[in-house]
Amino acid sequence: MKRSPKGFSSKLIHAGGVHDEKGSAVTPIYQTSTFRFVDADQGARRFAGEEEGYIYTRLGNPTIEDLENTVAELEGGHAGLATSSGMAAVNTVYLTLLGNGDHMVGHQALYGPSRGVMEKLYPKFGVQFDFIDATRIEEIEKALRPNTKLLYLETPANPTMGITDIARASELAHARGALVCVDNTFSSPYLQRPLELGADIVLHSMTKFINGHADIVGGIVVAKDPQVHEQLAYVMKNVGCNIDPHQAFLARRGLKTLAIRIERAQENARRVAAFLQDHPKIEWVLYPGLPSHPQYELAQRQMKGPGSMISFEVKGGLQAGKTVMDNVQLAVLAVSLGGVETLIQHPASMTHSKLPAREREEAGITDGLVRISVGIEDAEDIIDDLAQALERV
Ligand code: LCS
Question: Annotated catalytic, 183?
Fold first, then answer.
């Protein structure tokens, strides 16, 4: 196999390591459910693991492998498992690491369903959990128990933008024998690499920055340790939540421009955050690039840049926030994030609406919080759009 280049942007283009026999410069879409064996013995050898090669797409496919290898290399992990969605990635981790009598500690402000599914589905498997404020390291320390198997973090968190010290949290969890998984969706490996900071598993909703074009749903899990990868792979392949080759192809294609997309969106976001912070109709802004962010210094240390996600509240709360969302013209009023287009949404009634109001309140997801995923349009246009919508308030 060819050696991968050192630089992150070069890896975005050249990593993957799957080369087409016919010489296609880009790994093609192997749109097939199954792979022909030359004879019965070869089929048997592949099933026995005695010969490398493909068997059946749920178990592995060159297009999917190219994407998995690339993301694993970008994150500095052993191997990746691409899944049908980000939630499939989250559940692959939960199902692999947690069983009857096991305990998980999670950050209180995760993407709504990442918390909701644990609270609703996993008690029937005997899994115990505590959701705490993981931006406070002492809260993590207090919550870890002898039976804690997983510390589950999302940093920056959706949608509160709270940031956890991954290195310190990992030390604490490891001292108690628990593994650490970080949902790195908001940062992408371009801005933050949790495995290098001490985490054991990193996952993404590839629906977001990795694909970057709001045209597929997908997820990925990358483990640092080969044994953990094998356990995750068993669950993913037998639950059958693999990604489709065509989706994988699009995600691999989108990934090539990750660095330039993030740089541009981040530059726009810095300007949008500064505009919002100075606006008389804005109550508060949460953006890791603003010194007013509660974990500003940690963000500077842990992340290469603050990214392009911003949460804010308009003076007048929910009603005023709705006026802004109903009057934007360039920004798209829609959930999801991390695409080339600017998106705006209301977590309390949309992405986080299934959580009880008390849990949202404790986690800092106020009714007036509006979340914006800043795209790569011209910053002036995004700011003009928000300015005219704010004028209606
Ligand atoms: N993790 C994070 C941090 C997310 O933001 C999402 C989706 C997921 C996991 C799940 O990924 P999916 O299954 O959708 O690919 N976040 C969404 C959001 O904030 N708005 O719509 C979806």
Answer: yes
Give the number of the atom of ligand 1 that is nearest the alpha carbon of residue 87: 13
- The yes-or-no verdict on residue 367 having pLDDT over 70 is yes
What is the pLDDT averaged over residues 75-104? 98
Is residue 268's pLDDT more than 60?
yes
SS3 367: coil
Query: What whole-number distance in Å separates Cα of residue 367 and Cα of residue 363?
Result: 12
CB 42 within 8 A of CB 226: no
Protein residue with its CA nearest to atom 11 in ligand 1 = 86
Q: DSSP character for 306?
A: -
Residue 281: both structure tokens together: 């109709």
Residues with CB under 6 A from ligand 1: 85-87, 90, 111, 114, 154, 158, 183, 185, 205, 207, 217, 219, 335-337, 351
Residue 1 has pLDDT above 60, yes or no: no
Q: pLDDT-based confidence at 4, cuts 50/70/90?
A: confident
Domains of the chain: 8-255 (3.40.640.10), 259-390 (3.90.1150.10)
